[in-house]
Amino acid sequence: MGSDNTPYRGPKIGLCLPYEGPASAQDIIDVAQAAESAGLDSVWVGDHIAFPVEFSSPNPTTADGKYPYPTDNPRMEALTTLAFVAGATSTIRLAVNACVLPQRNPVIVGKAVATLDYLSGGRVIFGVTLGWLREEFEALGADYPRRRQALEDGIEILRTLWEQDQPSYAGETHSFPPLNMRPKPVQSPVPILVGGHSRPALRRAAAVGDGWLASRMTPDGLRDHVSFLREERKQSARADQPFTVATTWPAAVGGHNPNVLDLTDRDATLGTLTELGEAGADAINMVVVSYDPAETLEAAEALGQHLGSGS
User: Fold this and answer.
1) pLDDT exceeds cutoff 80 at 28
2) Residue 91: which residues within 8 A CB-CB, separation 6 or more?
3) CA 33 to chain centre
4) What is the Cα–Cα distance from 202 to 236, expressed in whole angstroms?
């Protein structure tokens, strides 16, 4: 792996688009096209509709419970952004990490994702999560206390909409009579990856997901979670279906941020990817923590060079 000629054989690598911060429409396209030219597997966007100016809900993915970026940043809506990117790319996969499904009508979400998959030629990876920001739920008129049931119902509804000819559903949080809803997605199934680090979240991912989404976990922490997931997956009705473990990893270009991976350091980059792969990651979403479009563009190019696939 120390040789520049050694082919990369680790986890699939994606790149988070600069959907958050000062990016222009052209910046988004430039980064997505650079990632595709570099041979990366996927581009990713996150999901928050609106941050209340004041909130007290703790973020479960950080040690201090705080959201790690300015809450007044501009943020592009996830599916709209990926639809925009789909028209300017041809092969790279389009991923959401992760839609807060309990905040939305799942029939509308199902229609939007099916349309995106159809128009992109079957390139969607759809991550879903429970959601942690109670004040955002309240602002959207969504039911925060029942979000766990809404998430589980929502996943079932999405598959019903995408896979049945005239889907119908009767559940605790949603119901609808038989519907005509076409076109169907190109993929069957569209992969649904389920986020969350708690034991109930891992059980949910193993039981009903096509994969699990982790966030900013050390290799040791990831290994422990993956071991638990594998045991749970054996008990799932979907145990014979493929299951993907995906995680995010914070990065920068150059040594200006000593707290994250410097993507200009090839040995450190490939070493980190190898460690995460050995811990159980099948896919890694590299997140340039500045969300600076120019730096994210450089990240795509650096990753392509390291992986031996840059143009």
Assistant:
1) yes
2) 36, 123
3) 19
4) 12
Which amino acid is located at 156 in the chain? E
The gap from C-alpha 69 to its chain's centroid, in whole angstroms, comes to 17
For 83-120, the pLDDT digits (tens) are 999 999 999 999 999 999 999 999 999 999 999 999 99
Residue range 242-300, pLDDT digits in tens: 999 999 999 999 989 999 999 999 999 999 999 999 999 999 999 999 999 999 999 99
**DSSP state letters, 121-175:** TS-EEEEEE----HHHHHHHT--STTHHHHHHHHHHHHHHHHH-SS--EE-SS-E
DSSP state of 8: P
Q: Encode pLDDT of 218-241 as tens digits.
A: 999 999 999 999 999 999 999 999
Q: What residues contact residue 29 under an 8 Å CB cut-off, 6+ apart?
A: 84, 85, 88
Q: Which two tokens stand for residue 236?
A: 């799932």
d(CA 139, CA 130): 16
